[in-house]
Write a structure and sequence with these properties.
Blueprint: H1 3-16, H2 35-48, E1 54-55, H3 57-70, H4 79-92, E2 96-97
Parallel strand pairs: 1-2
Helix pairs in contact: 3-4
């Protein structure tokens, strides 16, 4: 998990677990002293593992190239058209992109 993920978890945990401490342990890396918070953190990580990966520009480029190669673009005239179509198709399939993270 990234620091951004950890911060998002702690922001939510501060609301839902207001009576619990968000202090981390010194002996188990990344875990929390409070068992309730720690269990929630482990569940948060497990759920995040099931999300679609965050794709890079390389995935968009590969999709655009595939559209170009198949010739199924219709009225596309410019390479950026291919990229936008590829990105829209990937997003429709549930993908997220790094710049949107």
């Amino acid at each position: 998990m990234t620091d951004k993920d950890r911060k998002a978890f702690e922001r939510e945990a501060a609301t839902y677990f207001a009576r619990h401490t968000l202090k981390r342990t010194n002996y188990v890396d990344g875990h929390y002293v409070d068992q309730t918070v720690n269990d929630a953190w482990l569940l948060w990580q497990a759920c995040a593992a099931h999300y679609a990966p965050k794709l890079t520009d390389r995935a968009i480029d590969l999709g655009a190239h595939a559209i170009l190669e198949t010739g199924h673009c219709g009225n596309c005239a410019f390479p950026e058209d291919f990229r936008e179509i590829a990105k829209a198709a990937l997003r429709a399939a549930g993908a997220r992109f790094e710049e949107e993270a």
